[in-house]
Amino acid sequence: MSNGTRQPIVYPPHTRVDLRKFDPAATNGMSREEAEAELVGLRLRLNELQNMLYADARYALLVVLQGIDAAGKDGTINSVFEQVGPIGCSVVSFKAPTPEELAHDYLWRYHRVMPERGHITIFNRSYYEAVLVERVKGIVPKATWEQRYEDINRLEEYLLRNGTVVMKFFLAISKEEQRERLQERIDNPKKQWKFRLGDLEERKLWDEYLEAFEDMLERCNTKHAPWHVVPADRKWYRDVVVARTLVEKLASLGLRYPPADPAVLGLKVD
Amino acid sequence: MSNGTRQPIVYPPHTRVDLRKFDPAATNGMSREEAEAELVGLRLRLNELQNMLYADARYALLVVLQGIDAAGKDGTINSVFEQVGPIGCSVVSFKAPTPEELAHDYLWRYHRVMPERGHITIFNRSYYEAVLVERVKGIVPKATWEQRYEDINRLEEYLLRNGTVVMKFFLAISKEEQRERLQERIDNPKKQWKFRLGDLEERKLWDEYLEAFEDMLERCNTKHAPWHVVPADRKWYRDVVVARTLVEKLASLGLRYPPADPAVLGLKVD
């Protein structure tokens, strides 16, 4: 796809996105300077909107970030939420489940850390791992993971109906971009701690992950909780897309500072 | 106290601080411009140190903020941690305990949300409420709260021995400053949601709170977990004191990026 053609971020529900034809380096005609300038304002606006979400206390916001290793999930969080204070905004990074978590249904550990109203919680990886790593590595049989797409759609519909807005971002990078980023982790002493030998085994499963991502993007792209497919080779474009999407969504909720108790108006403090 | 005299932030263990003689407007000779300039650098440094704390993963940091209503706990968090990303840094704001929490020992709800190694957790109010509001409002009898100072000292000693560094800040404001801030909450439509009529009842207990704070600052000011008594009428001075103290502490821990697995060095990614 040439840079002149716009590549959509959101697709109609249940559209199949061919990730082999998707351009992870797309910037939809935007320059780095334009993106960085826009991002400055978006970060400030996101902070304002988070304060209003908190004061308003009618909605919660769940942000789901998925992407292959080194797709930039941590970097996106650090950049997009740079101006958002930690009161009312938290991140949960999911690792391999503990024995206690495995002893429960697979959505249990995610449900218990959902944001309360007024708060933003960012899932750095999420319940989608149940149809990604667990599928690709054969941790559960196909008959099990096949049913999970519908479980997840129902969960997200339920959450929205109960005041939790779910915003999902898939960060798409090219295989070459992943190679460069993993190599950087090996070569840079400040990044070596992020690298595990297992990362190279995972990389060998690139095609299997691509297929699992395509199924996820097709089957869980719903009207109530659409997937945003973000070209993420260029970090500055990735960040502006995520920030803009969040700002637009929050701005659409009609957030407002709750009206004061009439007994409070005009009071003088001694 | 004149602005020329330095007012200590930390006192020798178990010193009684007379809060009636303490100057909450003290700036120890610093100007607003100096403080704001220093704060810019401290925020960036705090972010760097948090990244190293995370990579190093040997220590956790617990930051405890206490102060009377409107002392500026939220404002301090938003300002000091402005540059620290939400990955690895979270805030817990404690409200009145739930029935489940009340059914446990009083430290239970605090212990379960302590930071894991590599993380910073900020307690916006803390287990110290067990010797503050619970004492002042007579929620528990004296025979009960009297024993809690020692429980808390033991807990903090235990935490430190197990890798959690505890940094405690008491934000001291004057009664007149509190009056102005509560009045602002009543008069400013964007702040009214923060105000409750009960805040005025609490204000009537100013002297009782002062005594409870003095006891807390005396009995729980230990070598392993000293109290920092922060003059907090001037927000810019308050922020620079808290930020500087945290930066100095983290810088003293000898944090480092963990060395790479020898099997990883020199690897080339295909």
Automatic annotation (TrEMBL), chains A, B:
Source lineage: Bacteria, Bacillati, Chloroflexota, Tepidiformia, Tepidiformales
GO molecular function, one term: polyphosphate kinase activity
GO BP annotation list: polyphosphate metabolic process
Pfam family, one: PPK2
InterPro entries hit by this protein: P-loop_NTPase, Polyphosphate_phosphotransfera, PPK2-rel_1, PPK2-related
Gene3D superfamilies per record: P-loop containing nucleotide triphosphate hydrolases
UniProt keyword terms in alphabetical order: Kinase, Transferase
Residues covered by the Polyphosphate kinase-2-related domain: 30-251
UniProt entry tagged with the keyword Transmembrane: no
Annotated protein name in UniProt: PPK2 family polyphosphate:nucleotide phosphotransferase
